[in-house]
């Protein structure tokens, strides 16, 4: 893979005194910058001789400057002032000002430019800045989106898509930066008594956070039942109004001495420093969770609405994430939702029970939760514990259920397949226990995979026919057109398979993005790339098919053993 | 952004859209205009 070669192959070849510059573009929000920081930190630990620079939006990156300077030799902040938007009299002046900013980047002599934000502006910026190699989304001179490296194609086709992406964004960014980078080795000290908890009860969107009254209940239970605990609450200036609800809550008046409302009173740097004295962080999916994970503070995250827990849960081992089992979870940012069923499905009782156990023992277990929480509440949620796999990839394991949901099963099978296909790595994983439903859907998906296999095989065949026709002594244009039409039909039929087998979307979407980014400058090169692409698709489909077959076989063996044991007991 | 400048950038992007359809390769300056238009739009969306 090109991306990997750039980083890994030069490791031993560059002169000791040569400093290569890698520039990351991250124009999205604070959470994404923090995840970029974590990936860059891992890279820097492995390759300290590379110079890393970051281009980010001022409003999101400035509050993090205290942290960014640990990893990035320089951070370029972009905003309306830097680009002279308000001082330019006309478009020519504005473009010239922008060119002056771009000249700064040119002076950096960038070896590798990596666009990690997949937005329109970052794509255009990546296309303007000169660099020896470019990864991630860029625009070409015909204004087409171009994504050449496989991990970026994976992110573009799978992140914030359905619920089946098994990878955390830190690992995805890390994989774009270099091949098989390990996880950061952050040993967490042995569990000690929880005496100071930090809560950030907010998120970037209403969909992703409870109403504050639910948090008041949690605060009340914690303060009432754990007299040795002190709680600090943090939030931004915009969230002060919610904090007033906490200040004025009659339930909490008695405990004010142990409840510190810091909403709107702290910078991100203050929060980062405060985390040094914190034993546990609790909150929704937001940047404070990422700050806590950078500081190696244990976290319990409630993921709601559009949050893909695997993608954005705080990175690191032994963190917990609670998600609803609501059918529509996770939703999409533009989905209209007035009722927020997923908010109701995660009850405060479930969170409190999880907190109670964590405070007592430093972990959350199935046995304790079954004893101390009602089945009614527990059935509506999943509780995950994070770990790092042997090859250093973040992973969530279901604490409550041995039998896995359809999405959990597919996510795991994709995880193994993508590791093999994109990373050339094998990640050892245990067989998952299937429910009747997940077993049935896995069985059905085998027929979908067979269709995909046949379609890809046809794609390969017609790509070969085109190549043979071109290389013949008198190439017939009408034949080439006929075969091209066949390939278009194959792509159309592949989309139909996606409709009938939605759990196969990740693999179909990935190869659709690859198809849009075929390498080559003429019909021969493009057709050769097309042939190789269908060949790759066949490999991926075969890996997935074999994994599903083995999972089903294991399920049948387990069931047979269980049946035999049941018969013996009778 | 000054009103005049805002209008100019909108017009420039519209003109570029027409050029893009005619398959003429975009120059660095034109890509810069497209970057600025996208950046300002995203900035104003973030401010809302």
Structural topology:
The complex is a heterodimer of chains A (570) and B (48).
Chain A (H helix, E strand, L loop, with lengths): L1 H7 L12 E6 L3 H17 L4 E7 H4 L3 H4 L5 E5 L12 H17 L4 E4 L4 H9 L4 E3 L2 E2 L5 E2 L3 H9 L10 H9 L18 E5 L11 H14 L4 E4 L6 H9 L10 E3 L6 H7 L5 E5 L2 H8 L4 E4 L6 H4 L7 E5 L16 H5 L2 H14 L4 H7 L2 H4 L2 E8 L5 E5 L4 E2 L1 H18 L9 E2 L1 H36 L5 H24 L4 H11 L7 H47 L1
Helix pairs in contact in A: 2-8, 2-12, 7-21, 9-15, 18-19, 18-22, 19-20, 19-22, 21-22
Chain B lengths: L2 H19 L6 H20 L1
Helix pairs in contact in B: 1-2
Shape of chain B: elongated
Q: Let me know the average pLDDT of chain A.
A: 92
CATH architecture of the largest domain in chain A: 3-Layer(aba) Sandwich
Helix/strand class of chain B: mainly alpha
Q: Structural class per helix/strand content of chain A?
A: alpha/beta
Q: Uncertain regions of chain A: pLDDT < 50 for 5+ in a row?
A: 1-12
The biggest beta sheet of chain A is recorded as:
8 strands, mixed
Query: What is the H level of CATH, i.e. the homologous superfamily of the largest domain in chain A?
Result: Glycogen Phosphorylase B
Roughly what percent helix of chain B?
A: over 70%
Residue stretches of chain B low in confidence (pLDDT < 50, at least 5 long) are none
CATH class label of the largest domain in chain A: Alpha Beta
Total number of strands of chain A = 17
C-alpha-based Rg of chain B, rounded: 12 Å
Order of helices and strands of chain B: HH
The tally of helices of chain A reads 22
Oligomer: heterodimer
Radius of gyration of chain A: 26 Å
Number of domains of chain B: 1
Number of distinct beta strands of chain B: 0
Query: Residue share in helices of chain A?
Result: 40-55%
Question: How many domains would you count in the coordinates of chain A?
Answer: 3
């Amino acid at each position: 893979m090109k991306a990997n070669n750039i980083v890994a192959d030069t490791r031993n070849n560059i002169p000791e005194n040569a400093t290569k510059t890698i520039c990351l573009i991250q124009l999205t929000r604070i959470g994404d910058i923090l995840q970029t920081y974590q990936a860059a930190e891992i890279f820097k630990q492995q390759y300290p001789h590379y110079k890393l620079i970051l281009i980010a939006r001022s409003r999101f990156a400035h509050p993090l400057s205290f942290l960014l300077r640990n990893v990035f030799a320089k951070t370029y902040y972009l905003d309306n002032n830097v680009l002279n938007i308000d001082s330019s009299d006309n478009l020519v002046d504005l473009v010239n000002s922008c060119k002056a900013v771009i000249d700064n980047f040119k002076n950096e002599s960038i070896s590798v430019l990596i666009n990690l934000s997949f937005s329109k502006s970052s794509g255009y910026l990546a296309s303007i800045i000169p660099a020896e190699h470019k990864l991630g989304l860029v625009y070409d001179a015909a204004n087409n989106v171009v994504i050449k490296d496989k991990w970026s194609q994976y992110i573009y086709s799978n992140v914030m898509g359905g619920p089946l992406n098994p990878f955390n964004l830190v690992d995805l960014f890390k994989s774009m930066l270099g091949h098989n980078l390990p996880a950061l080795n952050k040993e967490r000290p042995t569990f000690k008594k929880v005496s100071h908890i930090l809560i950030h009860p907010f998120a970037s969107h209403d969909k992703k956070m409870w109403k504050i009254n639910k948090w008041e209940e949690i605060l009340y239970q914690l303060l009432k039942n754990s007299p040795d605990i002190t709680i600090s609450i943090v939030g931004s200036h915009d969230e002060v109004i919610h904090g007033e609800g906490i200040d004025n809550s009659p339930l909490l008046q008695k405990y004010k001495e142990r409840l510190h409302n810091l909403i709107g009173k702290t910078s991100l740097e203050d929060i980062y420093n405060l985390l040094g004295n914190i034993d546990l962080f609790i909150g929704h999916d937001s940047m404070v969770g990422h700050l806590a994970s950078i500081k190696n503070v244990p976290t319990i995250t409630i993921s709601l609405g559009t949050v893909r827990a695997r993608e954005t849960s705080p990175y690191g081992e032994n963190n917990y994430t609670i998600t609803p089992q609501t059918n529509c979870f996770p939703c999409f940012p533009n989905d209209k939702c007035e009722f927020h069923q997923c908010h109701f499905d995660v009850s405060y009782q479930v969170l409190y029970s999880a907190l109670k156990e964590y405070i007592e023992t430093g972990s959350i277990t199935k046995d304790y939760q079954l004893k101390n929480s009602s089945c009614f509440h527990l059935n509506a949620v999943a509780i995950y514990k994070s770990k790092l796999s042997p090859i250093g990839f973040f992973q969530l394991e279901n604490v409550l259920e041995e039998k896995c949901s359809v999405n959990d099963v597919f996510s795991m099978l994709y995880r193994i397949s993508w590791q093999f296909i994109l990373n050339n790595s094998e990640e050892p994983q245990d067989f998952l226990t299937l429910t009747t439903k997940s077993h049935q859907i896995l069985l059905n998906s085998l027929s979908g995979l067979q269709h995909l296999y046949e379609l890809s095989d046809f794609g390969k065949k017609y790509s070969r026919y085109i190549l043979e026709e071109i290389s013949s002594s008198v190439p017939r244009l009408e034949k080439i057109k006929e075969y091209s039409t066949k390939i278009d039909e194959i792509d159309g039929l592949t989309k139909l398979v996606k409709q009938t087998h939605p759990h196969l979307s990740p693999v179909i979407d990935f190869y659709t993005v690859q198809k849009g980014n075929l390498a080559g400058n003429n019909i021969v090169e493009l057709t050769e790339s097309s042939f190789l692409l269908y060949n790759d698709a066949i490999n991926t489909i075969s890996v997935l098919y074999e994994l599903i077959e083995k999972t089903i076989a294991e399920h049948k063996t387990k069931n047979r053993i269980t049946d035999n044991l049941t018969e013996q007991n009778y | 952004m000054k009103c005049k400048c805002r209008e100019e950038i909108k017009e420039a992007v519209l003109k570029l859209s027409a050029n893009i359809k005619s398959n003429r390769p975009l120059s660095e300056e034109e890509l810069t205009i497209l970057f600025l238009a996208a950046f300002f739009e995203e900035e104003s969306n973030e401010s809302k």
